[in-house]
User: Which sequence fits this backbone?
């Protein structure tokens, strides 16, 4: 913090006790700090004061959410609900069940599972009981759940928030509390059928979310390892060369090759050989061609991976998704726990790599996914065994849908669209233009509720018709049911279309049906 | 940090404890708890690897929801949310943790039950304790003066499980609140209509909603001769009338709280009163009560409330009950509590006690509670701007444990499975239909659709299959 900042803080400290917050803007301009910087320093000041003020807390106004977290307002919730509804409906169509786990786990459960990222785990304070931490993803809790309940077979989805103490300076816009949406099939089954179903599900979801064109890249850990072996990469460099290959979605081959040779110590020959393979893309045909490759086919791992890839594509053909699935030898992903097939779905309209967005929070595994990606996953047969005392294996394959990325795309769409996002589903407002009709309005509203109609009434004894109509326009209520002395005598209700302003008198007994007809 | 030798000693001792419990055939719960402690000690010894230590349990007071429980949960939420939407409510969501100061000073004695996050160099944080304080913070932060919102989410309380068996530390709350300055009692009445609709639709049997008013209670205490400074404490004693008989409640008032018998008897006359709009009218004629400003205001509003409840057609299950007290810390007007007619005996502690949005909780048998709280949001606003609020918290956890679930359809993965195991799978999971493929059927362009329960089979043309399944599974 610069000297100027310190001075303005002392000024604040002196003034806060006597003047209202209104005077602060004056100081803000003179100090040259940005508004959000000032808010941050003010918050720290208030925190300190709060400690001084004791437990009262009444006179200290700390009006902010924790760093890296945010409230969801009704508009955002409406978008969120729509997205979840589409995704969950797809999971259910495929017979998946859902589970939920606690927001915190025993610290030991999470320890040792996330490598370097472990420092990003939120711990709970030691308050005399068990040591706890907030969950970092949904995969480790899933493995713990399977082992704890001795479950060998399950097809489950899990949508919930996870927590990571990311450093906001490095990654602008990254949240510390964010949603993950995982789908996994656990169990020993005949090869590649569940793997194919995962891809079918990603395909269906991305279609239904209407996000434009997309591609799903697939590859296989065994093919990658086999490929590295036949190219001459030393065993101990497999992982590190893998992360370099992973950068091909952001960097050109020349730069990737430079990193392999200059930073990771590969010879140019080896790098070139890798380069030939990783530029290959195709479908079942590519798998068949590579099975004819004399070097690759001799490598056990690669052979197994390629055979399964061929089988996978035959199933994808039956599932009618091959138009958007590509076998891409440059796909690497975070390979720490993947043991077989890996895949990543990318929208064709991608954001340039220089823009950091919550996109990087997509993906259930620690490695994250690249910008433009909206889903990622693969097979991980060894994870559950780490939790089982007898080391019993439960093979798993799954995918994580990049919900946060999808949220921000949908939010942007909503902003630019002329159609307003409704935050309520109200079909009709019960109104009156005349005075002293509150009782009649309440009575009719109650009748409508009892008939299952979504209705509102203003909490005012004698509201003006204009303000009632304004309420409809602001919140998107399509109909208004207007009561008046004459209408009551005649046993009718004036039903008005808010947009078109057309009105018609409807017999009271027919009102419910009429509303249903007009609001589907 | 214990040094290695001490740790090993502790492990040895704890190992003994586990062995003893097992040989004594102690309860599974107890054994699991002591085994977990043992594993935790071993984990400290083993360092950060964690690979060879199998701590297979959820944190104390928390639980996973398996698919069956999730199905029930979804059904319950669906009914409740559909009701909120029918009344034009929006929804919001807030983070699972707040700044520690946001929660400080809001929960009185219960503050010690708040989960804090470790100081890891940043802001001091705590897990939310309820949904009401985050709501007030949200309104003040966004300078919102009017909103009708529901919020369903988990909250966290470090309850002492020894005292309250079965109480979870992570549990759902389901809040509905109307914030804003409006004409008296209309939103209050709508809250009650919503509780009524929800409890009907959940099909939990008969129920009653008790209503009272903080001003009526305070006025009543005043005219009975309770000293001002004893209002709160006498209130908590009156609150026990749903669990204790009047004689015991009176004893507590006189012996423990220092009221004279006369005063206690006068209270006794009032708190035995129950009724509807008629009772409000009768009490407005009571010479003492009607002279008390607070009571008069409360009774006038109660009369108005019942006139609206009449129009909303809910008076058959709403009772004006002068013995209803609830946790009155932030309530300023009407208060209410919904109780199922088939209640559990008071001796059984259940997650029922976690119902209710406020710290005071509700009594066993209760499935919803709430009231008007006009002063809370002002505590968060720097200018002290008031935003009047009225709301209700539905006792979701209690409702979960009362309901039942449904089945779903699936596809089996085996390429060459036995038909029998497929049919058995249907029977086990409750799948009602099975669509059987065979060489002949494929040639003929039909699918054999079999009713699992009746075993009746019919050949359905492939093109008609979707409609036929929909017809049969509604």
Assistant:
């Amino acid at each position: 913090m610069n000297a100027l900042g310190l001075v303005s803080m002392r000024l604040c400290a002196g003034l806060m006790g006597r003047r209202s917050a209104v005077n602060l803007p004056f100081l803000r301009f003179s100090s040259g700090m940005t508004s959000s910087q000032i808010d941050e320093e003010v918050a720290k000041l208030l925190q300190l004061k709060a400690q001084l003020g004791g437990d009262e807390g009444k006179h200290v106004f700390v009006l902010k959410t924790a760093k890296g977290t945010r409230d969801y307002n009704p508009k955002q919730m409406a978008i969120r609900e729509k997205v979840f509804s589409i995704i969950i409906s797809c999971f259910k169509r495929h017979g998946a069940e859902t589970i939920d786990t606690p927001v915190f786990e025993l610290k030991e459960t999470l320890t040792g599972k996330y490598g370097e990222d472990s420092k990003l785990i939120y711990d709970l304070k030691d308050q005399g009981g068990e040591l706890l931490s907030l969950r970092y993803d949904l995969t480790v809790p899933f493995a713990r759940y399977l082992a704890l309940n001795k479950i060998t077979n399950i097809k489950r989805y899990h949508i919930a928030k996870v927590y990571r103490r990311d450093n906001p300076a490095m990654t602008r816009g990254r949240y510390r509390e964010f949603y993950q949406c995982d789908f996994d099939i656990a169990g020993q089954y005949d090869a590649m059928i569940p793997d194919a179903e995962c891809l079918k599900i990603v395909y269906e979801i991305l279609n239904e979310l209407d996000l434009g064109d997309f591609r799903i890249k697939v590859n296989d850990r065994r093919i990658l390892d086999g490929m590295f072996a036949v190219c001459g990469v030393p065993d101990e460099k497999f992982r590190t060369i893998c992360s370099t290959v992973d950068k091909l979605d952001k960097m050109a081959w020349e730069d990737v090759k430079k990193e392999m040779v200059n930073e990771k110590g590969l010879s140019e020959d080896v790098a070139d050989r890798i380069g030939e393979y990783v530029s290959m893309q195709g479908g079942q045909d590519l798998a068949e061609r590579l099975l004819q490759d004399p070097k690759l086919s001799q490598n056990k791992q690669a052979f197994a991976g390629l055979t399964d890839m061929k089988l996978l594509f035959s199933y994808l053909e039956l599932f009618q998704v091959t138009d958007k699935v590509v076998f891409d030898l440059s796909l690497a992903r975070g390979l720490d726990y993947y043991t077989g097939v890996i895949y990543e779905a990318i929208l064709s309209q991608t954001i340039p790599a220089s823009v950091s967005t919550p996109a990087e929070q997509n993906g259930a595994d620690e490695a994250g996914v690249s910008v433009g990606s909206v889903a990622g996953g693969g097979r991980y047969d060894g994870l559950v065994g780490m939790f089982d005392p007898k080391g019993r294996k439960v093979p798993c394959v799954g995918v994580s849908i990049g919900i946060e990325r999808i949220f921000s795309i949908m939010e942007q769409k909503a902003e630019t669209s002329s159609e307003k996002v409704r935050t309520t589903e109200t079909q009709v407002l019960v109104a009156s233009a005349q005075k002293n009709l509150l009782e009649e309005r309440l009575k009719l509203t109650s009748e409508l509720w009892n008939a299952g109609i979504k209705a509102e009434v203003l909490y005012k004894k004698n509201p003006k018709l204009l303000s009632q109509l304004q309420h409809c326009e602001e919140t998107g209520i399509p109909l208004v049911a207007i009561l008046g002395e004459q209408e009551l005598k005649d046993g009718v209700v004036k039903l008005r279309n808010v947009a078109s302003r057309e009105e018609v008198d409807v017999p009271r007994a027919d009102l419910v049906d009429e509303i249903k007809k007009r609001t589907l």
Summary: Residues 350 and 372 of chain A are 5 Å apart (CA to CA).
